[in-house]
Amino acid sequence: LAVALVAALLGLLAWRLTHEEGGEVRAALERGERPAAPEFTLPRLDADGELSLASLRGKPVIVNFWASWCAPCEDEAPLLEAAWREHRDEGLVVVGIDYDDFRTDARRFAEKNGMTYPLVYDRGGDMAKRYGLKGVPETFFVDREGRLVGEPVVGGIDAREELRERFEAGLAAILS
Amino acid sequence: MRLLAVALAGLALAAAAAASEERPTPADIEDEVLCPTCETTLDQSDSPIAQRMKTFIRARIAAGDTKTEIKAKLVDEFGERILASPPREGFNLLAWWLPIAAVVAGAVALALLTWRWSRTRASGDPEGSDPSSGPEGSDPAPDLDPELERRLDEELARFEA
After folding, report:
1. Contact A70 B80 (CB under 8 A)
2. Cβ distance A84 to A116 under 8 Å?
3. What is the greatest pairwise CA distance in chain A?
4. Which distant-in-sequence residues (6+ apart) come within 8 Å of B77 by Cβ?
5. For residue A79, which of A48, A31, A115, A119 has the smallest C-alpha distance?
6. How far apart are the C-alpha atoms of A53 and A120, rounded to whole Å?
7. What is residue B139's three-state secondary structure?
8. CA distance B66 to B25
9. Distance (Å) from the alpha carbon of A173 to chain B's nearest alpha carbon
10. What would the pLDDT profile of A34-50 be if each residue is shown by its tens digit?
C-alpha cells in the first residue's frame, strides 16, 4: 500500500510538472497554431462590474498584462493607447490585465499614463498562469474568433525594434 | 518546580505571540508573506513589488493594524498564494494534517509489524520445552525405539572392539 501511495504521488508530481498551466497555450503558439485564447471574466479596475473575453467575440482584441511597478509597462502604455484610439472604429479592443499589484497603485498608474482602454484586475494571478505568462509586460493577440494569433510580445513593445515589429504584425493579423 | 518552569515558559511564549499579533514588527510579517513575482518571502526579496509590499506593511503597522488584519489586506490584493503557510481551513487543512496522518500511520504500521514479528518468534519456541533436554535446549533429541537403541549399542560395541 505504501509503495502504491508513493508511486501515485510521484506520478501526480510528474503530471503536474509536464502539464504546467498555460504551457500548452505557449507550446501551440510556438508551433504556429492558433489555440483558443483562455477565457476570462475579471473585475474591472476602471469601472464597476466585470469584463469577459467571451463578450468581445467578433472583435479583434489585444490582451496586455501589466503592473504599476513595472517600468517597461509605463513606457509602452502610450503605444497601446494610440493603437486603441487609432483602430477602435475597426472594432479593436485593448484589454489591460493588471497583475501582482495593489489596485490603488494600478488606478493611479492608469490615470497618470492616460490609459482609457478597459482595465481589469487579475487577483491571485490565475489568468496569468493560464496564458503561461513569463513576466510583465506581455501582450497577446486574439482574433475575431477568439483564437490567439501571432507571437506574444514578451517585454515592452517599444523596448526593441524586433518587439515593435512583432506588435505591428500581431495587430495586423487580428485586424485583417 | 519543573512544572512551574514549564508553565512560566508557556506564559512567556503566549505573551510574545500576543504582542506579535497586536503590535507586529515588519519582520513578524515579512517572513510569513511571499513576494508574488519571485516566490520567496518578502524578507528575502528586493523586487519592486516586494519593496512596495514592505512599504504597505510599514504603513499599516503605523496605522495600528494587527498582524492578522495586515495579512488579510494583502490576501485581498494578491490572493492566498502570497501566504508562506496555507491558512488552516477547508482543503488547506490537508497540508497540515496529511504529514501528521502519515507519521501516525507509519507508527501504527511499525507497531503492527513488530507485534507480528514477536508473535512469530514466540510460536517457534513452544512453551514447556525443557532447556536441559539437549545442548541446544530448544531442539530436544527424539526418543529412540528400544529395538533400534539396542542395535545401535551393539554396533557401537562392535566398532569399539
Report:
1. no
2. yes
3. 65
4. A101, A102, A103, A123
5. A115
6. 11
7. coil
8. 10
9. 31
10. 999 999 999 999 999 99
